[in-house]
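sorry for the late reply, my laptop died twice this morning and i had to redo everyting from scratch. anyway the thing you sent over, i finally got around to it. pasting the sequence first so we're on the same page, its 134 residues, then the predicted structure underneath. double check i copied it right bc i was rushing
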Amino acid sequence: MDTTYWGRQFGLMIIKDAFRNKILWHRFVRYESVSDYLDGIDWLRLNGFKIYGIVCDGMRGLFPALETYRLQMCQYHMIQIVRRHLTAKPDLEASVELMAITHSLSRTSGQKFREALSSWHEKWRGAFRKERRG
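ok and here's the structure:
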């Protein structure tokens, strides 16, 4: 589920069936809200849909509101968060490595991703502590 905008105050919120690639519910909105997403989830339940899991953008308040379901943050949105902090084409070696790990997200297991991220933290921990003090 996600919302796409055309302009500042015109958006389309959708909930899509990933198995059948069909939009099940939609609503035109001025802005995204947790309550609108919950309305969509309620509509699905009332109309007999079984919800196996939800992939969403990680909007503030959405994960706690949907904690009864299996949740995953959209991988595209995860990459965009990292990119926003690093830039699209980072220069620092640590940033280049972190971006490479981020881009491996969709092609690796959760365990291998966590291991790569942990190794990156160990490798670069001291360098960034020194940089902050200096």
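Residues 13 and 111 are 32 Å apart (CA to CA).
thats about all i looked at so far, will dig more tmrw
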